[in-house]
Specification:
2 domains; single chain; 8-stranded antiparallel β-sheet; about 15% helix; lipid biosynthesis
């Protein structure tokens, strides 16, 4: 069950179960399932079968499995399922820097490490909080729908910036970016919400990317090409700069 204690001392009860389907996806599944049934009733099999398979694809896309979230204040966990496609030094988005007029201090100016996670249509698209704390900003930016794997998608695509501040003042910013197929970013949180690390914060419909901006003095614990899991994979330890190397196979 969600919330059960699972650890390396044998506590908890492990078991496989079908992942739930997020409510955001149920309406799409109902539409495609209805179309499949109607076309089957009309004996339009060439349409009915593809619509039936599309229904299964929609259900798979909106699956919402439970996750076992690491509980350590030094960890920044992955906000998205997918592949680490870019690790680079950049200036954080202007929408997350400085005072936005609300009296809330954003990220400091200056280069930081950005870890980009590309989500294919086969990945889980529920995004989760990389740290626990107060949601300070949720800023939606309209834009284009270029391939989310491109570096310039961070500045030109439709996107939504989020800023979370921990009780000790450490802030993490991250950005949900729409891709070629994605046409809507759906937030689950708003400024002022108190959230836990690994908590669901939103989704991006039908393929996209999430950028995470690490604090100064923090290097990623992941490498290019690595597959990460939202709410489980540790992206970085705050304040540490290990050199992590991998060999592609």
């Amino acid at each position: 069950m969600a919330g059960d204690i699972l650890d390396n001392q044998g506590r908890g009860e492990a078991g496989w179960q079908w992942p739930s389907i997020h409510p955001e996806g149920r309406k799409f599944a109902l539409i495609t399932a209805a179309a499949s049934l109607v076309t089957a009733f009309l004996a339009w099999e060439t349409i009915a079968w593809p619509m039936a398979f599309l229904t299964l694809g929609v259900l798979a896309f909106f699956r919402d499995p439970e996750r076992v979230v690491p509980q350590d204040d030094k960890y920044i966990v992955s906000p998205a399922d997918g592949m680490v496609s870019l690790i680079t030094q950049v200036e954080p988005p202007a929408e997350l820097v400085g005072d936005d007029g609300s009296g809330t201090t954003g990220l400091p100016a200056g280069p930081v490490t950005r870890v980009s996670i590309f989500m294919s249509v086969f990945d889980v698209h529920i995004n989760r909080a990389p740290i626990g704390g107060i949601v300070r900003r949720v800023v939606y930016m309209p834009g284009k729908f270029m391939n989310a794997d491109l570096d310039k998608a961070s500045e030109e695509n439709e996107r939504q910036h989020l800023l979370i501040e921990r009780p000790d003042g450490v802030s993490i910013g991250f950005t949900q970016i729409a891709g070629l197929v994605a046409r809507r970013i759906v937030p689950f949180v708003k400024p002022g919400d108190m959230i836990a690390v690994g908590q669901r914060v939103g989704l991006i419909r039908f393929g996209s990317r999430v950028d995470v901006y690490l604090p100064a003095g923090t290097s990623p614990r992941v490498v290019l090409g690595q597959t990460v899991i939202a709410g489980e994979t540790v992206l970085a330890d705050i304040g540490t700069q290990p050199l992590i190397e991998g060999v592609s196979q």
